[in-house]
């Protein structure tokens, strides 16, 4: 049976460079893996008052059910103000609750940070890593995946060069090794 992997992109904008990189990454999984984009832009801001059995938003339930089904999570995200975009942090929070039903628990993760700048989303990558420690997600350590100067590596069709594909493949190969250990 194929293993489903949730692919979560931290940017909501249509032309997102992070999503373009994610589109390149999903084609690099072995055939027995099924990467699937899980969208986060429709999730209401997390609020414990509405997260009750009577009031829970349908979007929270749908998102949590999608996470329940997957063997791992690949995060591809930009950096906002040296941290994780609010939409992604919100999705992390929604998936982690209600208390005792952390949907992220035990699922191996990989983080790819993306930026048009030279610092490559380092702050976002590591702030996200901090949350994943608390959520108990074994997270790919090496190779680290910081994609900087992203506008230089994407062509007009959103594809990267063969050289960059080699690097992206090394990330996916290491992530698959991690997934196979769980
Ligand atoms: C940014 N950007 C940005 N870039 C960066 O490298 N470090 C940062 O701290 C920030 N901060 C930041 C805050 C906010 C609110 C925005 C909107 C943008 C620039 C960002 O990297 C750029 O807009 C990317 O194109 C966003 O990623 P996507 O949407 O292309 O995936």
From TrEMBL:
Pfam family, one: FMN_red
Domain of life: Bacteria
Name of the protein: NADPH-dependent FMN reductase
Keywords, sorted A to Z: Oxidoreductase
Keyword tRNA processing (UniProt): no
EC class of the enzyme, as a word: oxidoreductase
E.C. no: 1.-.-.-
Domain NADPH-dependent FMN reductase-like: 4-150
GO MF term list: oxidoreductase activity
InterPro entries: Flavoprotein-like_sf, FMN_Rdtase-like_dom, NAD(P)H-dep_reductase
């Amino acid at each position: 049976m194929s293993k489903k992997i949730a692919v979560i992109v931290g940017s909501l904008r249509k032309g997102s460079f992070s999503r373009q990189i994610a589109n390149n990454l999903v084609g690099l999984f072995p055939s027995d893996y099924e990467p699937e984009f899980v969208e986060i832009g429709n999730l209401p801001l997390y609020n414990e008052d509405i997260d009750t059995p009577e009031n829970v938003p349908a979007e929270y339930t749908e998102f949590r059910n999608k996470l329940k089904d997957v063997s791992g999570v690949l995060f591809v995200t930009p950096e906002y103000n040296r941290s994780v975009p609010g939409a992604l942090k919100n999705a992390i929070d929604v998936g982690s609750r209600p208390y005792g039903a952390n949907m992220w628990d035990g699922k191996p993760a990989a983080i790819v940070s993306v930026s048009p700048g030279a610092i490559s989303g380092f702050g976002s990558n590591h702030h996200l890593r901090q949350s994943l420690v608390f959520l108990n997600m074994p997270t790919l350590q090496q190779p680290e995946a910081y994609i900087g100067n992203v506008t230089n590596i994407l062509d007009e069709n959103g594809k990267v060069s063969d050289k960059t594909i080699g690097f992206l493949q090394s990330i996916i190969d290491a992530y698959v090794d991690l997934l196979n250990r769980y």
